[in-house]
Amino acid sequence: MSLYRFKSRETGDLVMLQPHGKRILEILGKDPSGPGIVQPEEMASAVRALHDASMAEEAEHKRLKEEAEAQGELPPQFETVSLRVRCAPFIEMLKRCEQAKVDIVWGV
Fold this sequence. Notes:
By secondary structure, this protein is an alpha+beta fold. The chain has helices at residues 18-27, 40-70, 83-100, and strands at residues 3-7, 14-17, 36-38, 104-106.
């Protein structure tokens, strides 16, 4: 399985498995197929986008569980690690890099 390695001059490298890194990049509107960059001026909106996506995922899971319960069915099973937990290190990286005014790159 391939990896994404996010790099900056402010933090250590952040390594993610391909499916998780790809999902985060898609939430940010970045092309996950090749090298890329998140510049400091994009970082605040990137944090908001990841937060919003996490909240939407949690709301959807809650809705699906309530639906199943109302119909007397077993609740659906979701990934053990939620998007909110999975993207927390990336959000921390974004915040530190925004403050230091340095880019985050991958695939280089």
